[in-house]
Design a protein that fits this description.
Layout lengths: L1 H13 L1 H18 L1 H4 L31 H37 L1 H15 L3 H12 L3 H27 L3 H8 L4 H13 L1 H23 L11 H8 L8 H28 L7
GO biological process, one term: transmembrane transport
InterPro entries: BP-dependent_transpt_permease, MetI-like, MetI-like_sf
Keywords: Cell membrane, Membrane, Transmembrane, Transmembrane helix, Transport
Length: 281
């Protein structure tokens, strides 16, 4: 009995950060889906008698230079920021899986052409590549998502290609082909189910990076011009008031940091869960 209690304490201590990170992500997703239930005020409501007010009981994260409640702005701004992050990761993983699968399974000239394009994209840092595409396409929601997707795509394509190449010469794949099973059936039944797990782990870890890239583009003025600012725009708007009203930029920055950190913790835990070498505890 004492041993069971000891193991139970170890289990909870080891997973405390995972539970905390999951709670943070679920709360921020709830803010994005149901902002009107969580935010105490409308994001456009201005309190003329509380302009640049420090954190207080009525505005516990303070107000900005228009008298808007900072917490309400962060809650409503989470919708755009999380939408950019989740959709760009989904598209990058999907396109990367498609390109990597075709390149690794077919091989030959197709593999050569696809991988040379991927190599060119990988020589450019992700932030710089996203910045170039966002500047060329112009500030809009879909353009930012496209820019982040293109910058993240090479990593997913490379990972998936390596997985396919390592699996397509396995004995069970060769045996399936030897009895007349078509290449398409072999791919979808025997190769793809064993290849996508690392891609899911990479996508989970890449979620925080995508949020950070989206916030960075908004911070540099390449974000979405809209009535309700996202986290990066809030951070950019508050940088000029750091000496007079530090809370305007600090709390949106903390929201970005918390989400990125929580996404990374969740990704690491997901990787450990899918690792066959890890012992079940």
């Amino acid at each position: 009995m004492p041993l069971f209690k000891k193991n139970k304490r170890i289990f909870y201590s080891e997973h405390a950060f995972l539970y905390l990170a999951s709670g943070v992500i679920l709360f921020l997703i709830s803010c994005a889906i149901f902002p009107q239930w969580i935010a105490p005020y409308a994001p456009t409501k201005m309190f003329s008698d509380a302009i640049m007010q420090a954190p207080s009981a009525s505005h516990f994260l303070g107000t900005d230079y228009f008298g808007r409640d900072i917490f309400s702005l962060i809650v409503y701004g989470s919708r755009t920021s999380l939408f950019i992050g989740f959709l760009s990761v989904f598209l990058a993983a999907l396109l990367g899986m498609l390109i990597g699968s075709i390149s690794g399974y077919i091989g030959g000239i197709v593999d050569l052409l696809f991988m040379r394009v991927i190599d060119i994209l990988m020589t450019i840092p992700g932030m710089l590549l996203a910045l170039a595409f966002a500047a060329a396409l112009g500030p809009s929601l879909m353009n930012i998502i496209l820019a982040i997707t293109i910058s993240a795509l090479p990593g997913y394509a490379r990972l998936m290609r390596g997985q396919i190449i390592s699996l397509k010469d396995r004995n069970y794949v060769i045996a399936s082909k030897s009895i007349g099973v078509s290449s398409i059936v072999v791919f979808f039944r025997h190769i793809l189910p064993n290849a996508y797990s690392p891609l899911l782990v990479m996508a989970t870890n890449g979620l925080g990076t995508s949020i950070l890239l989206g916030a960075g583009l908004s911070f540099l003025g390449l974000g979405i011009v809209q009535e309700i600012p996202d986290w990066g725009t809030l951070l950019s708007q508050g940088r000029g008031y750091l000496s007079a009203a530090w809370w305007i930029a600090t709390f949106p920055g903390l929201a970005i940091t918390l989400f990125v950190l929580s996404a990374n913790i969740l990704g690491d835990s997901f990787r450990d869960f899918l690792d066959p070498k890890k012992k079940i505890r």
